[in-house]
């Protein structure tokens, strides 16, 4: 059982699956660039994945761990981000072709709902009491908010640089840009900038995820992952100067050299929806679980044969999904066309319980 307590996977692990996890059938033909589970409004678990092969695929994930391919849509250029509508009926696909399309899963039709002057790197569904919209961030240095019934944006905000990563947990949005910029917005009423944050990391960030206050269950800060194998935990309004910190991850001791570490990019970071602990995945072909409050690592994976590019949790925190594929971090000479992208699913609820006991 994937979503429950019982877990048996008797298949013999291939070298490409050293963690003996469930493998998603019919993965994309190229590296996964975005991945998301369906919202809690749907009883079943569906997984969507966008890829550099220009496609977005959807699978149903059964309790047994079996995945059933449901449908696929394509755009004219690589997909850079995907997200769900809150009712689980629609999927939004952001592409290098400077468009976002809305995929209605019921009718299996797509329609363009957003456009920028450059590739669109991020798209997020925003559900506020007074409005719902899509927030898109682009390499054209703008953040736009779209009522999907209109071809004109509700609002356009200029960014200091190209949008590289973003996250939304109403009423907070965080956008990470080129040149290590970070901008925090509040989404109540109408979107408005709260503060611009000096990056706690010395190198370019690649991923960001919002975390919640454990008692109030309201968004209170974010985790930021960089190309230099480091994560920053940053509270918007820290209670103490010690609240904000960084930690090293996705590094390996170089066997050929004394006291030298190989340092890899943190490709994705996600917080567990129940426990508030987090997962990171990296170009070193591993994933790890962390407890930010106890400042400790909960679990490390075995090393896979390709970098891990993306990860996500399902809505009740029972399933962890991660994708492997070449991320070009070592240049074109390390690209092996014989190695195909893969997506794996893993029961994770127990492994991500916090050490701190809170």
* Largest sheet features: 4 strands, antiparallel
Q: Write down the overall geometry.
A: globular
Alpha-carbon Rg, integer: 19 Å
User: How much of the sequence is in beta strands?
Assistant: over 45%
Would you kindly provide a brief summary of this structure?
The protein has 358 residues and is mainly beta. It has strands at residues 22-23, 32-37, 45-51, 55-61, 67-74, 79-84, 90-95, 99-104, 109-115, 120-127, 132-138, 142-146, 155-158, 163-169, 172-177, 181-186, 192-198, 205-212, 219-226, 230-235, 245-248, 251-253, 261-263, 266-271, 278-282, 287-291, 296-300, 308-313, 319-324, 342-347.
Features:
358 residues; 30 strands; four-stranded antiparallel sheet; mainly beta; globular; single chain
Topology summary:
Elements: E1 22-23, E2 32-37, E3 45-51, E4 55-61, E5 67-74, E6 79-84, E7 90-95, E8 99-104, E9 109-115, E10 120-127, E11 132-138, E12 142-146, E13 155-158, E14 163-169, E15 172-177, E16 181-186, E17 192-198, E18 205-212, E19 219-226, E20 230-235, E21 245-248, E22 251-253, E23 261-263, E24 266-271, E25 278-282, E26 287-291, E27 296-300, E28 308-313, E29 319-324, E30 342-347
Antiparallel strand pairs: 1-30, 2-3, 3-4, 4-5, 6-7, 7-8, 8-9, 10-11, 11-12, 12-13, 14-15, 15-16, 16-17, 18-19, 19-20, 20-21, 22-23, 24-25, 25-26, 26-27, 28-29, 29-30
């Amino acid at each position: 059982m994937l979503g429950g307590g019982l877990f048996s996977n008797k298949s013999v692990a291939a070298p490409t699956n050293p963690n003996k996890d469930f493998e998603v059938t019919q993965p994309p033909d190229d590296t996964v660039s975005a991945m998301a589970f369906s919202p809690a409004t749907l009883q079943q678990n569906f997984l969507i994945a966008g890829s550099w092969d220009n496609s977005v695929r959807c699978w149903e994930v059964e309790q047994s761990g079996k995945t059933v391919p449901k449908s696929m849509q394509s755009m004219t250029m690589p997909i850079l981000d995907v997200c769900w509508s809150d009712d689980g009926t629609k999927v939004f696909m952001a592409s290098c072709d400077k468009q976002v399309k809305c995929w209605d899963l019921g009718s299996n039709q797509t329609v363009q709902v957003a456009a920028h002057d450059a590739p669109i790197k991020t798209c997020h569904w925003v559900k506020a009491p007074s409005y719902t919209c899509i927030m898109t961030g682009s390499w054209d240095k703008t953040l736009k908010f779209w009522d999907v019934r209109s071809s004109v944006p509700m609002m356009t905000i200029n960014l200091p640089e190209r949008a590289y990563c973003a996250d939304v947990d109403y009423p907070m949005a965080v956008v990470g840009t080129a040149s290590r910029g970070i901008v925090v917005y509040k989404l109540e009423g109408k979107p408005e900038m709260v503060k611009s944050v000096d990056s706690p990391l010395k190198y370019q960030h690649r991923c960001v995820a919002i975390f919640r206050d454990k008692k109030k269950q309201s968004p209170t800060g974010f985790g930021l992952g960089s190309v230099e194998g480091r994560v920053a935990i940053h509270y918007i309004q820290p209670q103490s100067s010690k609240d904000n910190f960084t930690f090293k991850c996705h590094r390996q001791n170089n066997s050929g050299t004394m006291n030298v570490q190989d340092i890899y990019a943190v490709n994705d970071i996600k917080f567990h929806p129940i426990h508030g602990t987090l997962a990171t995945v990296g170009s070193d072909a591993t994933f790890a679980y962390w407890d930010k409050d106890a400042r400790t690592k909960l679990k490390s994976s075995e090393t896979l044969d390709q970098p891990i590019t993306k990860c996500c949790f399902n809505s009740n925190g029972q399933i962890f999904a991660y994708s492997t594929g070449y991320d070009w971090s070592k240049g074109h000479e390390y690209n092996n066309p014989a190695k195909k992208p893969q997506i794996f699913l893993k029961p994770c609820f127990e492994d991500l319980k916090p050490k701190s006991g809170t």
